[in-house]
Amino acid sequence: MNALIPVESGPDLAAISERWERASRAHAHRVVICAGTGCVANGALDVHAAFVQELERRGLGARVSVDWEEESEGPGGTLVSHSGCQGFCQMGPLVTVLPAGILYTHVKRGDVGEIVERTLLAGEVVDRLVYADSETGRGCCTHKEIPFYSRQHRFVLADCGLIDPDDLGEYVARGGYEAARRAYREMSAKDVCDWVSRAGLRGRGGGGFPTGRKWDLARQQPGAEKFVICNGDEGDPGAFMDRSVMEGNPHAVIEGMMIAARAIRAEEGWVYVRMEYPLAVRRVRKAVQDAEKAGILGADVFGSGAGFRVNVMEGAGAFVCGEETALIASIEGKRGMPSPKPPFPAQRGLWGKPTVINNVETLATVPLILRMGAEDFRTMGTPTSPGTKTFALTGHVAHTGLIEVPFGTTLRHIVYDVGGGVTDDEGRPDPAGFKAVQIGGPSGGCLTPECLDLPLDFDSLKGVGAMVGSGGLVVMNQQTCMVSIARFFMQFTQNESCGKCVLCREGTRQMLSLLDDVIEGRADGGTLTLLETLAKAVQKGSLCGLGKTAPNPVLSTLRHFRGEYEAHVLHKRCPAGRCKALRPPEILASKCKGCGLCKKGCPVGAIRGERKEVHVIDAALCTRCGACAKACKLGAVVGDRKSVV
């Protein structure tokens, strides 16, 4: 390493850490309320306010922040703080009481008095508010006792559900900005690139391109003006990993940007956040302001002579702006549309200057690598996919939420050990079990029961026609219609196509139309062949990643569930019973008077029932001709006759 700056200058991180630690020790207890978007929507802010009011009413000295800037130990009492997403989203609002580490779930405003009385004052546990293990029925008081947490490896997310995202002092007290200080004072630009390359870090935004190689390419480009961009434009349906990191630990993202800037000698950066993430926008902006106030960001970073400043920009909600060249166009004030590559942004990006673009999770990982060392980082994950990956686990699974596991973890471990198993539509354990997982959102593909023991990493997923993507995992049970799932993602990508290239603009529209024909009973023997041919053409001929990956859900479901497609097309039947147009007609008991007109009108004798009794249609005999519905004068026969061939 190069001792480039022999004289210490810049902000004194050790002093900030010491002041925060001294001020925080003055509080006998700390109550941490999860204030991620999910818990906020469920009333977490009301719970926070209730704790403050209850503690003040009892004269117990409530504080909502650590007053470390004034170097004051404070009045003691209880610190009531908020955190980012703690991951166990369906159990929110979540409340953690420290130092005991007791985790309470589904906390409401009315529960606060009991928690103060029994836990803070008497040291007891409120049993009805702790998580009950679904396997043993045993109450789990701490994170370590809950299988959802204990079966993960929370690395990037380790601080997200613990620290106050608005408190720079707490981030510094936990080692924050030390890696950036080291990069600016002790390492050259090439040192930083080499360090990240040795760690084997690959981009967490979906493509998995080696981060160190991207940085080194930008470093070697001529010119004094270069830029760093954090891509926070996370738009996949069901994905909220980047949002949670920005909400829960924004300083980690800023520190990662600083290290990237050091690696390519950039002095300006942008955090591009989608406008649908107002909480993330607010917390990132505050983090930038606090870092500037503390002298961490500015004209002379850690006394190195190099400056770095960060801008925060809200995207307009276009999914295509997650593509790096479209994102660059948006920052430049143009319509967000992709450009052909090469040249790559690392060669010619923002305003024609070399630009490094990484997603939120990638940048938040970088400071941890510099702290722990490249070799230690490689002990997690697989040889070709080192480290961990965050996933948004949703769908028909017992424990939904934000999780993190090492690369190489099997799908079975995620769904059954971390997620608690597959559920039915009512959230109960589903004996029929697992049908598929959609991984990678609209750019990904389906993983079937045969893939349950597949180690999840960049290369193994590519081998089965899927991809990590940004990290969405949607679990589906046996009652899920895979054709409808493919149509859902196709409608999303068709709506989000920027329209620049014909194959994406028109091809996705025609694919959506063909899928509509399938689920509405209009498809014929040539529909699936045409759908598959068109999907491959869109995949090969589209300009950017959105168009090239848009057919993936269709091609994936056709490969693994072709029989389900054929049932829709050839037999006009949805095996899952989800497609309304293909449901057999039925007679509503509430309207049927047993007049027998439907029975007389049925040409194949598919209706049974005595006079003045409720009649029933035999689905196996019914040809869906519509004669029964036409004969009924009471509107008791329901069913869509458009599905009839």
Question: Could you characterize what this model shows?
Answer:
The protein has 645 residues and is an alpha/beta fold. The strands form six sheets. Strands 2-3-1-4-5 form a five-stranded mixed beta sheet, with helices on one face. A hairpin with a 6-residue loop joins strand 6 (131-132) and strand 7. Helix 18 (482-496) runs antiparallel to helix 19 and helix 20 (527-541) packs across helix 22 (552-560).
Keywords:
single chain; 645 residues; alpha/beta; five-stranded mixed beta sheet; 25 helices; 20 strands; globular
Short description:
With 645 residues, the protein is of the alpha/beta class.
Strand content: 5-15%
Unreliable parts: 1-7
What kind of sheet is the major sheet?
5 strands, mixed
Rg, Å, rounded = 28 Å
Which secondary-structure class do the elements indicate? alpha/beta
Shape call: globular
Strand order of the largest sheet: 2-3-1-4-5
Average pLDDT number: 90
Helix content: 25-40%
Distance separating the two termini: 75 Å
Let me know the number of strands: 20
Number of helices: 25
Question: Helix and strand layout, with pairings?
Answer:
Layout lengths: L12 H12 L4 E6 L2 H5 L2 H14 L4 E2 L14 E6 L11 E4 L3 E3 L7 H10 L9 E2 L6 E2 L6 H4 L17 H6 L4 H9 L2 H11 L11 H9 L7 E6 L8 H8 L1 H15 L3 E7 L3 H16 L15 E7 L8 H8 L23 E5 H13 L1 H4 L10 E8 L5 E6 L4 H8 L15 E6 L5 E3 L10 H6 L8 E6 L4 H15 L5 H18 L7 H15 L3 H5 L2 H9 L1 H9 L15 E2 L9 H5 L5 E2 L7 E2 L9 H5 L5 E2 L7
Parallel strand pairs: 1-3, 2-3, 8-9, 8-11, 9-10, 12-16
Antiparallel strand pairs: 1-4, 4-5, 6-7, 12-13, 14-15, 14-16, 17-20, 18-19
